[in-house]
């Protein structure tokens, strides 16, 4: 396989997963509006910060109001991390690799792009927000199902799985960060709503039922963190994603260095005691974990894609 084709498959999967999880992040904030009293509503600027887009957002010279942040994260083409930008990039990558992707997958991705593009220049009010974002999430999941059910499970498919799970690991940590950020200061008026915040995080990752099935106890921070970060059986848990990444890399050539880096990240995660993480300590841990996840991307890029230009 040509390195440029491999790279485009990898980035297609990453952009599709980014589209889905950005929608999930927006749903976290939206759900908190409904679940928390007016006196302690979440700050919308935090959503921009968690996505790493604060510097670009400041350049727009817009105030971080709910309306402005939603417009920027959902439909602003000048924001490289917006939903419309992510799905547009996914569409372009699959358009140029259609010889290894089934026509049904291309049609589903193209349909999703046209739907988001039509909505991107309009407001996303609270009354339709859940329906629109949930529709995007479901469409992304349909693409994953199409790929699994219609594509050869060869090296091309392993690159798709590799990109998807690396992006999922990163974005799941961002969702945990976004959902727990209101607790960073340990304000007294927030404490009665700790369970509401953690349930919201679980629901945003479609994890609440599986959490109750596996943990069989009331929702509390250390248990939620253990489940979302260390579970080997829940498909959106970081540890599970890392195991899938390792399995994918194991089926690719020249994989020794990449497997070593993945093992180092898995060890770092496994050795961290979630009971010690709260407030800023949790935020700092997630920052470090994200840097280590990025090191996996760097070794993947250096091993299989260079000297091609990154996506």
Number of strands: 0
Along the chain, the helix and strand elements come as: HHHHHHHHHHHHHH
Distance between the termini: 17 Å
What is the average of the pLDDT values? 86
Structural class: mainly alpha
Q: Largest beta sheet, briefly? A: none
Residues in helix, %? over 70%
Percentage beta strand: under 5%
Q: Which value, in Å, is the CA radius of gyration?
A: 19 Å
The dominant shape is: globular
- Tally of distinct domains: 1
Number of helices: 14
Low-confidence runs of at least 5 consecutive residues: 307-311
Describe the structure.
This protein has 311 residues and is mainly alpha-helical. It has one domain (3-305). Helices cover 71% and strands 0% of the residues. The protein contains 14 helices and no strands. The chain has helices spanning 3-35, 45-50, 54-59, 66-75, 83-95, 103-120, 126-150, 155-180, 194-204, 208-215, 221-230, 238-250, 256-270, 280-305. Helix 1 (3-35) runs antiparallel to helix 7 and helix 8 (155-180) runs antiparallel to helix 9 (194-204). The two termini are 17 Å apart. The model is unreliable at 307-311 (pLDDT under 50).
């Amino acid at each position: 396989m040509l390195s440029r084709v491999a790279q485009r498959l990898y980035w297609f999967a990453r952009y599709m997963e980014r589209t889905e999880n950005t929608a999930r992040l927006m749903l976290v904030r939206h759900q908190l509006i409904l679940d928390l009293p007016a006196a302690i509503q979440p700050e919308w600027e935090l959503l921009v910060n968690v996505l790493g887009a604060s510097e670009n957002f400041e350049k727009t010279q817009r105030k971080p109001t709910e309306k402005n942040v939603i417009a920027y994260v959902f439909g602003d083409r000048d924001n490289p991390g917006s939903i419309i930008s992510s799905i547009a990039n996914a569409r372009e990558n699959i358009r140029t690799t259609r010889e290894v992707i089934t026509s049904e997958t291309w049609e589903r991705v193209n349909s999703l792009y046209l739907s988001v593009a039509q909505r991107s220049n309009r407001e996303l009010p609270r009354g339709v927000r859940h329906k629109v974002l949930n529709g995007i999430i479901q469409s992304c999941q349909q693409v994953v199902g199409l790929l699994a059910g219609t594509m050869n499970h060869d090296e091309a498919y392993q690159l798709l799985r590799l990109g998807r799970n690396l992006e999922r690991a990163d974005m799941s940590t961002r969702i945990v960060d976004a959902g727990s950020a209101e607790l960073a200061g340990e304000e007294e008026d927030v404490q009665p709503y700790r369970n509401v915040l953690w349930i919201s995080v679980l629901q945003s990752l479609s994890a609440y039922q599986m959490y109750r099935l596996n943990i069989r106890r009331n929702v509390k921070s250390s248990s939620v963190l253990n489940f979302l970060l260390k579970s080997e059986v829940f498909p959106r848990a970081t540890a599970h994603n890392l195991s899938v990444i390792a399995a994918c890399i194991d089926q690719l050539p020249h994989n020794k260095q990449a497997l070593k880096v993945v093992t180092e990240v898995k060890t770092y995660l496994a050795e961290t005691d979630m009971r010690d993480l709260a407030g800023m300590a949790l935020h700092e841990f997630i920052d470090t974990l994200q840097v280590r996840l990025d090191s996996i991307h760097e070794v993947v890029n250096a091993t299989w894609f260079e000297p091609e230009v990154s996506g």
